[in-house]
Fold these 3 entries.
Entry 1:
Amino acid sequence: MDYQLRDRACLVSGASSGIGAGVVRLLAQQGARVVATARRVEKIERLEGVTAIAADVTDTADLTRLAAEAQKALGPVDILVN
């Protein structure tokens, strides 16, 4: 593995299935630190380096909370996937 993403801070929304879940897996495999978010986090695959945070990205209050929690977990975000 190349690990070009090692220690990069990433925030991925829609992470409970499909493309979002695949992106989370790939980022984690490449050594990134990831906050994965979806309305239902119990579907988010538990991987090393991944923090799951429940949030509805259509809700302004949830987005504000998500930003604060992601900042606390990761520091500044390098990569945003939504």
Entry 2:
Amino acid sequence: MSHISTNSPHAWMLAARPKTLTGAAVPVMIGVSAAWNDGFFRPVPALLCFLFAFLMQIDANFINDYYDFQKGLDDEKRLGPKRACAEGWITLPAMRRGIICTTLLSCLTGLPLVWYGGWTMVLVGVCCVVFCFLYTTCMARLGLGDLLVLVFFGLIPVGATYYLQSGTVVPEVWTLSLACGLAIDCLLVVNNYRDRDNDKVGGKITLVVRIGEKASENLYLWLGIAAVGLCQTMWLAGKPVAALLPVCYLIPHTVTWRRMTGLKRGRELNGVLGETARNIFLFGALLSIGLFI
């Protein structure tokens, strides 16, 4: 990569990791689509949910970049994409200021949602901010990152988005939110699968480190299958297209899984990470289209 000026706009763009924003968009897409299917649509809270999700994802990326560098996890042995603090693209004081700014901007963006969803939205926002910090600083090192993905990339964003559209949350939305969380967790599994050796040496005991290589490979495959399986409950809700379209996701998901299990180790797994992000967006798009139809 060509020389990047310290603290430049290009450096901040790289630190924001724009490719990860698909994981932030998919839960909101599904929540809005489910509400639309049930006859509800409010454009302003929908837009605010997207903006809040994007800003929180960027905030989480900044926090991860800052604290992983401080803990020595982003050294020369790192197999994943280059990180801003470790490469010197963003100085530590600048990254601290960046974290403060994105956190405040996220809160300001989410605050108007109180008008649509009541003061419960404040509690939701506080939980998002607190666990955004706890993920990198504590919970990811204890193997609890996958649980946070299910909650903060599934249950909360899908459920809250639907609630802000309709004023309630029906049981099928919780099923869809769990399916969303399971699909997005594939991204964390392959990320930790790639870094399992370095994480183990660095004392970061992720779920992948706990259960081992083979079980992690099986977990990746079955997360996608389970996500599609949960979508089949849409048959019972009289929404067959929303049940059928996500089945198509299993084709690229299985192809990516086979590539992952064939590679096992190395920087080539970054390609698997990119494919997984693409697959997750495909899952969200297929399910959303099914709900819109």
Entry 3:
Amino acid sequence: MTDDILRASKREAMEKYGFGTEAMKKIKVCPSCGEARPSDEKTCPFCGASLGDETLYDAYKERHVFCRNCGEVAPNGAKFCPQCGKRINQ
């Protein structure tokens, strides 16, 4: 298998089980009670707090290194993107 096929396969498996960039973009976390909710919801059904627009991906991206080419979050200290292979400028 080529590297591109392996990366696509890994990404597909992660998304299938609720992990990865695309999965994080679909989830918000309530700032009041911590409940995970779909990203299209505006109000938490458990505590009534406003959910805002920030997704789990947005929050994660603020705290970690990410690829400016494809947006993939990379491990701290990574020199190359695990998704597209481009050099990460830290």
